[in-house]
Amino acid sequence: MDVNEFDFDLPEELIAQTPLKTRTNSRLLVVDKKTKAISDRMFPDLIEALSPGDCLVLNDTKVMPARLLGEKVETKAVIELLLLKQLEGDCWETLVKPAKRVKIGTEVSFGDGKLTAICTAVQPQGGRIFEFRYSGVFYELLEELGTMPLPPYIKERLEDADRYQTVYAKQIGSAAAPTAGLHFSEQLLSEIEAKGVKIVYITLHVGLGTFRPVSASSVEDHQMHAEYYQVTEEAAHTLASARENGGNIIAVGTTSARTLETIYSDHGAFVAASGWTSIFIYPGYKYQAIDGLLTNFHLPKSTLVMLVSALIGKEALMDAYAHAIKERYRFFSFGDAMFIRP
């Protein structure tokens, strides 16, 4: 399958640069999974599309202030690190700019030496392994010295860092936000629960794969990077009960979808589990865990476009995206949402 089959022309002005003042003011493009019918709604209308007994699954990961700006101890050259994944102890997988200046043994200082890091391994495409050295609590230093790691297509400065966190973010560990959840307010979630919809929280820490484009020309040749997930006993029980009683399982975001499909692929049921997933979902994949999906609009030729295509079909997805572009929907992290209705 050619990666170019998932390409489309997106006017640059449709890439949302800043979040809306009110989270729930986003637009919502509803696509019926069976009929492929499209309708233009507002995000709070999601309540009407959900039924009592359905289960809404949210990723409660919290974004780290993972972007660090420092300098090489030897030359004072400016170095930028993006923390992606904690490996063991104080060793982290990172992306580095400019990577050509960082070799094994390079030492980088942050905050006038409050935090230092030594490169211990070189990886492809700007990847580096660093071992950090510090006094005190690492995450407290990160809060002091780091900034939010916004995607490269966002050029505007983020005034309020909380707008790149979901209102239910709890488990710190992500290098990027699960952006489909940014549209929810606490009040809207309460209203959804009041309708009889079960809300379940799972965790997947968004990592390296989010920042890496598909470089292979064939979809099947692309390799996903592993990300850590966790599903609790309570979450698994609620999911299993909803499925048993005929409720729809609605994943909020591709991260929730990938987590649930990993669990179901490995165990054939909703069970408590944790570990690392590198599941790659593209057309031809048969969904087992989820019935519907709430998601943002994604980059051309991205693995996320492929994942959504696997749920409704590539032609239906491209039709929906063409409609969204024509109707001037806002795209990507701070953009509008699409709901694939069961």
UniProtKB/TrEMBL annotation:
* Class of the enzyme per the UniProt entry, highest EC level: transferase
Task: Give the UniProt subcellular location, in the record's own words.
Answer: Cytoplasm
Catalytic reaction list:
7-aminomethyl-7-carbaguanosine(34) in tRNA + S-adenosyl-L-methionine = epoxyqueuosine(34) in tRNA + adenine + L-methionine + 2 H(+)
Q: Pull one GO CC term from this UniProt entry.
A: cytoplasm
User: Which superkingdom?
Assistant: Bacteria
Which pathway is this protein assigned to?
tRNA modification; tRNA-queuosine biosynthesis
EC number of this enzyme: 2.4.99.17
Is S-adenosyl-L-methionine among the key words of this record?
A: yes
Question: What InterPro entries is this protein classified in?
Answer: QueA, QueA_dom1, QueA_dom2, QueA_sf
Q: Which UniProt keywords apply?
A: Cytoplasm, Isomerase, Queuosine biosynthesis, S-adenosyl-L-methionine, Transferase
Q: Which GO terms describe its molecular function?
A: S-adenosylmethionine:tRNA ribosyltransferase-isomerase activity
Q: Name one Pfam family in it.
A: Queuosine_synth
Q: Quick one: where is this thing mainly located?
A: cytoplasm
Q: Which NCBIfam families match?
A: PRK00147.1, queA
Q: Which family does it belong to?
A: Belongs to the QueA family.
Matching PANTHER family, A to Z?
A: S-ADENOSYLMETHIONINE:TRNA RIBOSYLTRANSFERASE-ISOMERASE
Q: How does it assemble?
A: Monomer.
This chain belongs to the protein called: S-adenosylmethionine:tRNA ribosyltransferase-isomerase
What organism, scientifically named, is this protein from? Shouchella clausii
Q: What is the lineage of its organism?
A: Bacteria, Bacillati, Bacillota, Bacilli, Bacillales
Point out the gene that encodes the protein. queA
